[in-house]
Amino acid sequence: MSQPSVDSTPQKKRSGSRSSATNFASDCTDQRSSRMDDARKEREYRRFYFDDIARCALPKNSTLRDLVDKRATDISSNLEAILKKRSQDPATPALMRQAINKCCEWLRGELISKNSSRYEKVIYPAHAALIRCIADHLDPEPAAAGSTDEAKRVLLPYASDLKPTGSDERIRIDGALHSCANASSSDNKLRPEYRDIVLVAEAKWYREQDEAYAQLIRYTRQVYANQPNRRFAWGVTICATLVRVVLFENDRMISSKDMDMTTSTGLAAYVKFIVSLCFCEEHQLGYDPSMTWCSENKYWIIKCPGRTPDNDDEQPATYYARDLVFVADHLFGRHTRGFYASDDPELVDQPDTFIKDAWPHAERGSEDTSRDELAILQDIVQQLKNHGIDTTDYVRPVRGGTVKLDGDHDDDTDIVLDPVVGDIEAAHPRMGTIAENDETNASTLPTELAAGRGKDDEACAIDDSSRVEVIPYRVHRRLALKPIGKPLYALSSPYELIIVLADAMTAHSKILNLCGYLHRDISTNNILAIEVDGRVRGVLIDFDCAIKVGSQRRVRAERTGTPSFMSINNLRNSSVERSELDDWESLLYVVCWLGVYGVSGANQSKYQADIERKCRTDKNYKPPLYAWECGTFEEVARAKKENLEDMGTFTGSVLNHFQREDGYAMLKSLARRLHKRLLFNSHLDNKYMGMVKRLLTFGNIAQCAMPTATKDCNDVEALTARISADLVVTLGAKPADLGALDGGLSVPEACREWLTGVRASGTESRTQVNNAHTSLIHFIACRMKELRDGLNASDAASNPKRFLLVCGSGQTQTKASENSSLNDLICAVVDPSVTQLGEANSTNTVLFVKAERSGRQDLAYCQLIHDTRSLYADQPNRRFAWGVTICATLVRVVLFENDRMISSKDMDMTTSTGLAAYVKFIVSLCFCEEHQLGYDPSMTWCSENKYWIIKCPGRTPDNDDEQPATYYARDLVFVADHLFGRHTRGFYASDDPELVDQPDTFIKDAWPHAERGSEDTSRDELAILQDIVQQLKNHGIDTTDYVRPVRGGTVKLDGDHDDDTDIVLDPVVGDIEAAHPRMGTIAENDETNASTLPTELAAGRGKDDEACAIDDSSRVEVIPYRVHRRLALKPIGKPLYALSSPYELIIVLADAMTAHSKILNLCGYLHRDISTNNILAIEVDGRVRGVLIDFDCAIKVGSQRRVRAERTGTPSFMSINNLRNSSVERSELDDWESLLYVVCWLGVYGVSGANQSKYQADIERKCRTDKNYKPPLYKWEYGTFEEVADSKERCLTGLERFTSSVLNHFKTEPGYDMLKELAHELCQWLLFNLQLDRAYRGVVNTTKPHYRRPGTRVNTNTIIVEDPFVKRLEKDARDKINDDLAEVMDLYKRAAVSALYGFCQ
Questions:
Q1: Which residues contact 366 (CB under 8 A, 6 or more apart)?
Q2: Which terminus, N or C, of the chain has the lesser number of Cβ atoms within 10 Å?
């Protein structure tokens, strides 16, 4: 009888050894509980059922299959007969009789009643006896030895409840089976060894199946760690008399259903499985026949596929390896293993080749080699050689390919699961990625489990865009690589580490720049050290995650790498394209990791001992960087972000934990510099850094300022040529006096030095550059005036519409721009000969200029953004804005439109071309129309009467005549004080100028997204409001308390042109599209993930703009298309801050949500933007009432009242589900959750304006005295969408937490107690409603369900409850909750009415 080679497998070093990438933080006394927690999570995320999984163990040979059926039937029949007779044949061998006696009580079910506790103590001996009985039946007679019908092996049990050797955890297992030649050759008293175990058996009580799975996962993991030739693994769980067979493949644990040992069917099925394992081939046991252990010579014999850089003959070569360098000690993933090997057995102790063995993802039948590491490495080496680069320090492939079974069959998932893979797909027809099939969001998986890999496996996540089977397809690949190096922990000092890391990143840059491959998996395991000419060098290895990139050096977003070293962007799996900066961020984590835990093995061992000692004395102690390793992807990302948020936090939480030995000070300095350059460089060093992500470069953007009239264009060209020539002449003349500009041909010395490049050394100050630029603008204006008046020129040009001057020193700033520096406001004037401008105000400030030193362009952008937003706040008629940045002698013109800041290329003022281009821009601004400056000609300020005159389009509910009506408004209610977005503004207006102080109409002005040429009105607010009002009237409902459209439509320029993006960017919009052909959403086009933008910047809007996010699934232009729309609405109301008490607030909110429900139920529209700005108060019959306004985000819903997921609303009030932009469909529950945040917001900050002002003063005082003070709900307003969602989720985790973090901060004045009670009720009904529990509770009830994170899998056998923040409920369940919430609101409304008016409604 043949014996499996694994029986002689050598003992491996502990799986927690330093060959593991990330084990230091978890190798402490709490490691057991940590790994048990991991196992429980793996159980939930990886498990699914297939009844016939044991069929994978049936022999491939049909003769052997028939023999298995016969033997199994004989054994089962024999056992059944014995159980029925309760006696045995005296002729039965004594050993078999003893085994049968032990298991009879178990098989009859009698063992249960006798042992109600510690059941596993008695169940496994009974199971072991059954296995022994089967082995005795299969044990061949001596005369039959060598016959064709003998079993290849027999499986025998170990003694139960022992601690197997080979584990870094001193844990006992219930039992395991090992392989022997015959039943009499094994000594059952020998201690189990993980290197010999064929499968683990775990025994539990009836209702402990889930715990049995978790224990089995934990123990089987050690089998992988100790058996380098393990491809997959079997396992068995025994719960009382119920047995299940489990197969562990790379991505799933596939379990059979219960086999009841007290029934004939169950017993026969299990016996057949055990007999199959005795007859099947070795590879069906899970072993790799191409890798065998030579017990005589103590080395591994490894067959490596024959594809080499020179040929594809596929003839395998033999390698010999004694050292296993990388251990696959995780149950799921690629199972990457590494060996130091030689192709000469005599030189096995002098290895020169590294053998890499792994199971990467692949696509069935595909010839694509873009993810084939061998092909990638061959291409890299060839391209480096083509560039004349010595490849000594680069990893080079010797040979490799797909491992073969039986000589010609690829070893892959189909081989592992043959013959049931097709049946599994049929039984589980849902198609998708791993996460999709699990109903699991990868961001909520434990880091070592998600993306189908263990934390030490460094696996490339499967492409999220691909559609794969229920069992993701993998292939078994093996590579022979050179050179071999030593791991980083084998280095002797931090100095050597720095050299190695520098070499590795140099190689990284060359491979990226010359070969076009981005590595995407920088980690401690993927950088090795080699010695060349007596000096240490670094080598970058493992290109499994590498991908070919384009000229932009970006790749589509997917999560790849080793979690402890993945970038935050990567961990969050955001839609932001990956770049080399993600790899540099990973390097920072490598430096920090080794700085904290030590470089050399001695340092690591010492530090490990310190950690274990601290863990023993303090159970709550967590080692430094612990959170980088343990937790979900999102939790690790959050921990890293908190650690790296600023230099002080980074120093305290990371750098102060660095080792103190010689050399670590330099490593700490390196970490500090990497941190600063990566996260706080000039590109990011501003709180408006998110807006820089919107930057788009287009060289000819200044063309948008060219006048539309042909004559004006000709005048601009002529004046530009004349003034530029004058400047060139002046610069060559004798230096003039600083104030002598009257002659028109003199330039002040400061300007002369600037334009001639004298101050181009980079040492010039901002003030010097500003003064020089001011002189230049003044020169242009004065020269234009001279030419206009015909002075000193016979060919005077026509009249410009305005002149531009820069505000001089000492000018007054507007309130909105009070932080702006002097000398950076360009204003429009009538006569440029004035030496001092008047007050710089909203009527004459045209644009801002920001000057910085050379090389600080991005900081200039940030400052320009900061100041330009004040133009929108001060100028209600502002459509877009211009700006100018100056860095030394380089000038850039910037146009701010609703979604982008579009910058020109550098105009070098020291060259005639650059100077002429800038002069032309300034002259163009003097001649162009008002709307080309960024103003709205349909909205003008009447300085005499002090009101705005507003033209509103003429489309009304009764006709579409498009004749605009005139309104007069004195009060601007809503200010567009953000630079990007819809720029929503609101006015209280009247159509009678005599009644301007008695307004009856609300004018809403905004720039919503639209589709070019589309007639679709589903997002047209005017059409939506008209439909709502008509349907309400049809149902006989009085619309007094509902917002009603009077007229509205698209604003026109010049009477017939729609005011839209194309008008703003005319005539260059087509050129921009051609220059930037990439199509996608805003986030894709500015390489920015909306979830990582500050909330007030993402989704194309400000936090007060309540903008509907652009549909993430739509494909839009580089410049998203918007139209300028204006609506006249009734009634007008006062904002919530104008209410006098919380009682009034409650009434208003109740009315608004009543209207919300009616509009949803009767008209079919979901509002999707409940916020403080979108609910107004009106007075009807002397009583306050509430009105719901702003239906910009509203959308028509179907009978199920769900709409496709997209992020909409105002971040401070958006639901958590909405903030995370999850795939869960939106419903009315999201709007109710928004109402909860409105109640909390006004409860904390106060209802009336007086209260808010007082509270604001208190906050400002506390902020002055304590720089670290953050107001309540601060994080609901500031941060990324994800951060705001995290903050809300922490506040609302439970009622106690909600009370302490929110309710306790409510104001204490009269009425706030009722508001607090309302918030408490809303929270309880909305987030902890029994309907939610019932909808997602498993079959086992519990009085205190624990909530899981969004997107995780719900299994009917567990007691996990769906996270209430993700409300994927059926319509009936949502209706019930909706009714409950409406009842709560009505109850509090009646109480508030009673408190205010003395009677109940």
A1: none
A2: C
Q: At what angle do helices 209-226 and 31-46 cross, to 10 degrees?
A: 110
The HSE-up count of residue 700 (CA atoms within 13 Å, CB side) is 13
Question: 494-510 and 580-597 are packed helices; what angle lies between their axes, rounded to 10 degrees?
Answer: 170
pLDDT in tens, 1068-1101: 887 877 776 543 333 322 333 333 333 333 333 3
Give the separation between CA 634 and CA 653, rounded to whole angstroms: 19
Question: d(Cα 1243, Cα 1312) in Å, to the nearest integer?
Answer: 7
What is each CA distance from 1284 to 628, 927, 1094, 1171, 1194, in whole angstroms? 21, 46, 10, 15, 23
Cis peptide before 419 (omega within 30 of 0): yes
**All residues at 6 or more sequence positions from 1083 whose CB lies less than 8 Å from its CB, including other chains:** 575, 576, 1089, 1090, 1098, 1112
Whether 132 and 156 have beta carbons less than 8 Å apart is answered as yes
Distance, in Å, from the CA atom of 511 to the CA atom of 522, rounded to the nearest integer, reads: 14
Q: How far apart are CA 406 and CA 392, in angstroms?
A: 36
Question: SS3 for 696?
Answer: strand
Lowest mean pLDDT among 234-243, 509-518, 867-876: 867-876
Spatial distance between the Cα atoms of 909 and 917, rounded to a whole number of angstroms? 9
The answer on pLDDT for 1229 being more than 50 is yes
- The pLDDT of 741-768, averaged and rounded, is 65
CA distance 606 to 1315: 57
Give the confidence band of 41 by pLDDT, cuts at 50, 70, 90.
Answer: low
Residue 1381 and residue 1370: Cα distance in Å, rounded?
A: 17
The percent of residues in the chain predicted with pLDDT above 90, rounded, is 28
Q: Which two tokens stand for residue 124?
A: 């496994």
**DSSP secondary structure, 87-119, as one string:** S--TTS-HHHHHHHHHHHHHHHTHHHHH--SSH
CA 961-963-966 angle, to 5 degrees, is: 145
Calculate helix-pair angle for 1228-1245, 1312-1327, nearest 10 degrees: 150
- Please give the helix or strand (H or E) that residue 615 lies within, else none: helix 601-617
What are the phi and psi torsion angles at 803 (to 5°)?
Answer: -120, 155
Secondary structure class of 23 (helix, strand, coil): coil
Handedness of CA 1045, 1051, 1056, 1058 (dihedral sign): negative
Q: Whose CA is closest to 379, among 517, 555, 475, 480?
A: 517
CB neighbours of 972 closer than 8 A, spacing ≥ 6? 876, 948, 985, 986, 987
Longest dimension (CA), the chain: 134
- The whole-chain average pLDDT of the chain stands at 76
- Tokens linked to 1232: 């109710």
Q: Six-digit token pair at 889?
A: 């002698």
* One-letter amino acid for residue 421 of the chain: V
* Secondary structure class of 783 (helix, strand, coil): helix
The tens digit of pLDDT for each residue in 692-734 reads 457 788 888 999 999 988 888 988 998 999 888 888 877 765 5
User: On the CB side of 914, how many CA atoms lie within 13 Å of its CA?
Assistant: 17
Contact predicate 705/902, CB 8 Å: no
Q: How many CB atoms lie within 10 A of CB 129?
A: 22
